[in-house]
């Protein structure tokens, strides 16, 4: 459905532009934005490679393992069923650790694995359990220690201080995660 909406927005925008005599401006804007998009994508790719390399160093140095050790006791408190299975809890920890470091691309396979493992423990296969719903909320509101993707985008757009968002991001994502957990725990009592 969203594809149709985008198509009609673009089509009617171009049509109105042509009918109002701005066809040349539209074609110049399309060409300029296409070139800027390619340049931006190349810059962003380089910066993302840097952050992925930095995260690999963090992984090899044991930093991610230390973070996961800190997370396990907390996660055992909030996940009822998943905390009983070490394999499931491990996938959850790896997903959340990757998300905390701002590497959502690396977190995706762990998130899929965590959902598969929680579904394995689920009595009602194919229907989300409370732990699955909580994991989804935590995945969406994950605390960002290093928002590397946003920092990369800001650097690619020539921000004077791309890292200035670290503290506000940490505060907002921590607040969102806490509110998400509280809401899930309240709703679990009624549904």
From TrEMBL:
A Pfam family assignment: Gate
Domain (Nucleoside transporter/FeoB GTPase Gate) ranges: 42-154
Keyword Cell membrane: no
Keyword Glycosyltransferase: no
Superkingdom: Bacteria
Name recorded for this polypeptide: Spore maturation protein A
Coiled coil: none
InterPro entries: Gate_dom
Residues passing through the membrane, by range: 6-26, 38-58, 89-112, 133-153, 165-187
Entry keywords, A to Z: Membrane, Transmembrane, Transmembrane helix
